[in-house]
Amino acid sequence: MKIKISNEIKEKVPQTKLAVLKYTADVKETSPELWEYMDETIIPQINKKLEIQKVTEFKNVASSRKAYKAFGKDPGRYRVSSEALIRRIKQGKELYKINTVVDTNNLISVESGFSAGSYDIDCVNGDITLNIGKAGESYKGIGKDSVNIENLPVLCDDEGPFGSPTSDSEKAMIGLNSKNIITLIYSFSDDENLSSLLDKAAEYLKKYAGAKNIEKLIIE
């Protein structure tokens, strides 16, 4: 499986990159250790940051919003997942508890400010390309009837779009039976040290999701 970024994406936002982790995992319902870390360390850090900054001013949220505008999508209506999660924290709402891989994915997203997505490789057909959603395109989102993906950056395989930094489709969603997984970090920033972020993300996935055989790569 190859992963690439389309010329169309690069023309509109040249600094676009994908930080990729490929691994195997025995997905569990929850990790108490992860939620202890989230509740006692990460959420207090985010709340402290929110005392002096708006969510939209967080560096990597801001770069993602700027990219959405360049693609032709309203970032206020179609928020990247990192912004949506940080807004939940600001509102005092609990973060979603799905399973160990998705919850670790969301930890990475909240801490970095970048949207991250995790996908079951066995449900993906062919190579993966990050492209821009075409006019009139949509798919059934996870927990949603339909997601309008026109002008969104979207992951596509040989059968069409299946994921985005805003909302993924059900096609390759992570369940308790998923084994072969990729976690992608969507970067629209030109000054982020993605290698360090990948290293930290890999450690989180090992610790909280039991990830093994981890491969790390950056797609430019």
Structure characterization notes:
- With 220 residues, this protein is α+β, with helices and mostly antiparallel strands.
- It has one domain: Phenylalanyl-tRNA Synthetase, Chain B, domain 3, CATH 3.50.40.10.
- 35% of the residues lie in helices and 23% in strands.
- It contains 6 helices and 10 strands.
- The chain has helices at residues 7-12, 32-50, 59-71, 81-90, 100-112, 194-209, and strands spanning 3-5, 17-24, 115-120, 128-132, 138-139, 147-148, 153-157, 160-163, 180-187, 212-219.
- It has a 4-stranded mixed beta sheet.
- A hairpin with a 2-residue loop joins strand 7 (153-157) and strand 8.
- The longest helix is centred in the first third of the chain and has 19 residues, at 32-50.
- The two termini are 16 Å apart.
- The mean pLDDT is 96.
Mind telling me the CATH superfamily name? Phenylalanyl-trna Synthetase, Chain B, domain 3
- How many beta strands in the DSSP annotation? 10
Shape: globular
With strands numbered from the N-terminus, the spatial order across the biggest sheet is 1-4-7-8
Uncertain runs are none
CATH third-tier fold name: Phenylalanyl-tRNA Synthetase, Chain B, domain 3
Task: State the CATH architecture.
Answer: 3-Layer(bba) Sandwich
Oligomer category: single chain
Main beta sheet: strand number and arrangement? 4 strands, mixed
